[in-house]
Amino acid sequence: MPMQTTFTKLRPAHATSSTLALALACFLLSVLSGFAAEAAPAARVPVILDTDIGDDIDDTWALGALLKSPELDLKLVVGDNGKNLYRAKLLAKFLERANRTGVAVGLGLDTATHGTGEQADWVADYNLNAYPGKVYADGVQAMIDTILQSPEKVTLIAIGPVPNLAAALAREPRIASKVRFVGMHGSVRKGYGNANQPAAEYNVKEDAKACQRALSAGWDITITPLDTCGLVQLRGADYARVREAKDPLDQAIIENYRVWLGRDRQGDAVTHSSILFDTVAVYLAITDHLCTIEELGIRVTDAGFTEIDPNARRMRVATAWKDLPGYENWLATRLAP
Questions:
Q1: How do residues 221-236 score in pLDDT, each as one tens digit?
Q2: Contacts of 78 (CB under 8 A, 6+ apart)
Q3: What are residue 105's DSSP bridge partners?
Q4: Which of 72, 176, 229, 308 has the most other CB atoms within 10 Å of its CB?
Q5: What three-state secondary structure class fits 222?
Q6: What's the pTM value of the predicted model, to 2 decimals?
Q7: What are the beta bridge partners of residue 220?
Q8: Mutual orientation of helices 84-97 and 248-261 as an angle, nearest 10°?
């Protein structure tokens, strides 16, 4: 009897142990499956960059940030607002230095703006025909084709005046339904230098008609106006992180910055960047958690102002920073991890 009693008591305990073991195995399998799901890379977002690179240096910084963002799959870069050969050479040489020649380069419209700019010395001897990747003489058509041929919606990052985009919409209105537009445009409540008076921001006023067309199109729109992008500047450890980086991409940024500064302002390259307006558009193509986002009706005037109008096309606007130092650290870390 004692043996039977002992055996009787052990059987439920044994069954309970087996059940617990099975439950534990299922739990561990579930946890591991969750880790595997988290570890699985998210789908990269196809991107086109439309840029007036070669005027202000911030476009060069923005291109670097874009190339360093694994969430974004850059398909095509196109120079906008004239100077098309100069801009295409800057884009191609930068991509080559960054070992990203799988990205195609497009020449933008030949507008009334011709010649070169402050970064001309960096590409003085560069031969665009030698670029190992694809170069499209008609960058506007390349944009249209890339958008229509994409199986998923394309994020179009625009960081300059937008005559290319107005022309693309006129040629092929269907692209609007396949694009998410993220732009560095406007001045809503703050102007340059955080002034309390809004300004006619350059990317808008340079071709207000084109911007009216782009910011009234049927695509989803997110913009960073001067209210947020006009405050971004790397200093101290954040700037030093990029300045001292050994990555060829970071070195190309600093080389271009020094060329752009000119002989009399080289001291700036030691201590701080310029205002990095355009980098915020790249950030908003990925996330917006460091910004305050408002959905506003924005009307573009003929004089190049972006005014709040409840009856105008509504869009997502980054109107303030929740954490500007956090963004500047994000940018520096993204460029020089």
A1: 999 999 999 999 999 9
A2: 48, 49, 50, 51, 105, 106, 107, 108, 139, 140, 142, 143, 164
A3: 77, 135
A4: 229
A5: strand
A6: 0.88
A7: 180
A8: 140
